[in-house]
Amino acid sequence: MAAPSLLLYSDRSLFTRRVKDSRSVEQRDPGWKLFGKVPPREGTHKDPKKIQTEYETKAGRAGPGNPTSPRQSVRKNLDFEPLSTTALILEDRPANLPAKPAEEAQKHRQQYEEMVAQAKKRELKDAQKRKKQLEDRCKLEESIGTAAQTWNQEILPNWSTMCTSRRVRDLWWQGIPPSVRGKVWSLAVGNELNITHELYNICLARAKEKWNTTAAPATEAETEDVDSSDRESSLELIKLDISRTFPQLCIFQKGGPYHDVLHSILGAYTCYRPDVGYVQGMSFIAAVLILNLDTADAFIAFANLLNKPCQMAFFRVDHSLMLTYFAAFEVFFEENLPKLFAHFKKNNLTPDIYLIDWIFTLYSKSLPLDLACRVWDVFCRDSEEFLFRTALGLLRLYQDVLTCMDFIHMAQFLTRLPDLIPAEQLFQHIAAIHMTSRNRKWSQVLQALQKDQERGSPVLKR
Amino acid sequence: MEAIWLYQFRLIVIGDSTVGKSCLIRRFTEGRFAQVSDPTVGVDFFSRLVEIEPGKRIKLQIWDTAGQERFRSITRAYYRNSVGGLLLFDITNRRSFQNVHDWLEEARSHVQPHSIVFLLVGHKCDLEAQRQVSRQEAEKLAGAYGMRYVETSARDAINVEHAFTELTRDIFALVRSGDITIQEGWEGVKSGFVPNVVHSSEEVTKSDRRCLC
Fold first, then answer.
1. Is residue B212 in a domain?
2. Locate the Rab-GAP TBC domain: which residues (chain A) (predicted)?
3. Do A280 and B46 touch (CB under 8 A)?
4. Domain total in chain B
């Protein structure tokens, strides 16, 4: 509560200074004439503040203990002062005009009081709002603190028994506290590939060897290898892409603290999975992991994440499988948002147009980073299904704006989402998406489509 | 309210990764140069109106594609519905020029039964000192494939307007001559919201405007 009242006080002192200044100017100035005929008179420039205090003294409003300084008591008791011109309504008319009838003067007094009362009410409301915002912020910080404690002391030590419990699932949905996020991600993603820190170091050493050899001009023997030019250009591309990864954070660029780490992880991965290599979009995934985990653990999570069926399909650009994913997505799209689905169909807006970027980078490029991390929280637990559910949640959140747009505006909107996305609202919309279609779950729909690829979405078909 | 345009052309921008596709388009549509831009994953979208003659506006819908080879199987699906294309290479990167042929082959084989009017763009021409591809050889290559050649710089805003408007004019001429027609189920060219009056004056000027474009 300290901050708002302080703010009020400083407002006031500014105000009084300004009034004083203007008065001194008036004193020097002989006075201006409206039509050149009326001579400037005493009292024309009466300070509204003075009028107000005069009125308050007359009306007996002044603080009981301090009748000589009404302004001070106003400050203490009301916590509010009316706007500068508000009190002018109380002033008598200039002498050259007919005097104010008593009835009108009474009316003006009433109006003035109403205005003051209203302004006071508004001021009080604002103060309450500010108080509430501050309280909310404190509450949020406190809840993050207690959540971190719960995760650290209760959940993580008993991971295998607790991770599926209702309570943990609820906590999980609300977002994992940043301090334990990396640990939880690692546990949830697992290490199916059994990658050790030693293996990471071996892959990294191999990558470094390659960088050194490709730094020298390629020999004829090397170019005979079909893959080598592609691999070489992918090493080149990693270098270029690192500087283009979250440039606004200024930590992955050359000379930044995480530049070498990002370079190492991506390089090591191309040696670990030369069949997949480096694909644009990967640098964002690795970067998000680096922000939450130590290098070797980030690599382990990276390799295991990319090994998930959906990620493999996309990063290897397995076309028919990608089509199957889009088709499955459309099944749930139509089921959950039939109106928007029809609008998209009418405009030939196919899911590949927006899903490719979202899935490839796991939303890290398209959503604000903190929100992307919350999506990752649940994605690490619920796998690919949650990526598509998030997409539907986003479409649901922006359903109304999207239905008013044509193709190009929708495509632009979806490939460049608003900078400010309300996190709680988005998660409410994601929660409202039903991931069952005719009693079939996501995985069942996907499987059925995989068996019958003929029914795949016509998207991307040549 | 949507500004009134005669036609909408869908253009696709292709070329190797990091030749500056997104930067060129951003300069054209947003009028600014971004020092760093995200690598494009999949496809990005831009649009702008171009006035090719007083009162005659064309809406350009620009598809900015990912340059990495791996994404070609995705982006090749987008050729079919494009009427025009800017094929970019980086004048300071010889390999990106050598790949021009591959890009054209790629496009030609996936655009059937339609065709794309291509413009060859040598980008980053502000970096003259690092030039690896001469203007002459680029012009020769463009000529061999029946394309125009333009050198541009997004950083210094050189020829950016020119590149897009020239391509637009070329396509417009082909639409007028009837070589390119609006077709149901094809997104390359769409007719815009045009008052009837303009349509009739279109008919009148059709024959004598052809060769000027």
1. no
2. 175-383
3. no
4. 1
Using one digit for the tens of pLDDT, what is the confidence trace for A422-450?
999 999 999 999 999 999 999 999 999 99
Q: Any CB–CB contact under 8 A between A156 and chain B?
A: no
Q: What is the pLDDT of residue B4?
A: 86
Where residue A406 sits, what CATH number does that domain have?
Answer: 1.10.472.80
Measured distance CA(B155)–CA(B126) in Å, rounded? 7
For an interface test with B, give the residue of A243, A270, A280 to mutate (most B CBs within 10 A): A280
Nearest Cβ partner of A317 from B38, B61, B70? Answer: B70
On whether residue A134 sits in a domain, the answer given is no
Asked if B127 is an interface residue toward chain A (Cβ–Cβ < 8 A), one would say no
Point out the residue among A233, A360, A407 whose CB comes nearest to the CB of B41: A360
Average pLDDT over residues B178-200: 77
One-character DSSP codes across A407-441: HHHHHHHHHS--S---HHHHHHHHHT---EETTEE
Instruction: Please give the Cα distance from B50 to B9 (Å, whole number).
Output: 11
The residue segments making up the domain with residue A375 are: 309-457
Question: Which pLDDT score is estimated for A50?
Answer: 67
In chain A, which residues have their Cβ closer than 8 Å to the Cβ of B110?
462
Q: Is residue A430 part of a domain?
A: yes
Q: Is residue A270 part of a domain?
A: yes
Residue A280: its chain B contacts at CB < 8 A?
A: 17, 39-41, 66, 68, 70-71
Per the structure, how many domains does chain A have? 2
CB contact A280 to B (< 8 Å)? yes
Contact indicator for B180, B174 with CB cutoff of 8 Å: yes
**Per-residue pLDDT at A282 exceeds 90:** yes
B29 touches chain A (CB under 8 A): no
Any CB–CB contact under 8 A between A233 and chain B? Answer: yes
Which of A:307-346 have CB within 8 Å of B? Answer: 317, 319, 322
Single-letter amino acid code for the residue at B112: Q
Q: Per the CB < 8 Å rule, is A411 touching B45? A: yes
Q: Are residues A387 and A268 in the same domain?
A: no
**Together in a domain, A349 and A422:** yes
Two tokens, residue A142: 């406190």
A356 and A276 both lie in a single domain: no
- Structure token digits, residue B91: 């004048």
Mean pLDDT of A305-324: 95
| Mean confidence (pLDDT) of chain A | 82
Chain A and chain B share a number of CB contacts under 8 A equal to: 74
Range A406-437 burial, b when 16+ CB lie within 10 A, else e = ebbbbbebbbebeeeeeeeebbebbeebebeb
B128-152 pLDDT, tens digit per residue, is: 999 999 999 999 999 999 999 999 9
- Put simply, the answer to whether A356 touches B39 (Cβ < 8 Å) is no
Cβ neighbours for B135, distance < 8 A, ≥ 6 positions apart: B122, B149, B151
Buried b (16+ CB within 10 A) or exposed e, B81-107: bbbbbbbbbbbbbeebbebbeebbebb
pLDDT at B210: 37
CB contact A243 to B (< 8 Å):
yes
Mean pLDDT, all residues of chain B: 88
Tokens matching residue A356: 């490719």
User: Residue B160's domain is classified under what CATH number?
Assistant: 3.40.50.300
Contact call for B74 and A352, based on CB within 8 A? yes
**Cα–chain center distance at B122:** 13
Tell me A151's DSSP state.
Answer: I
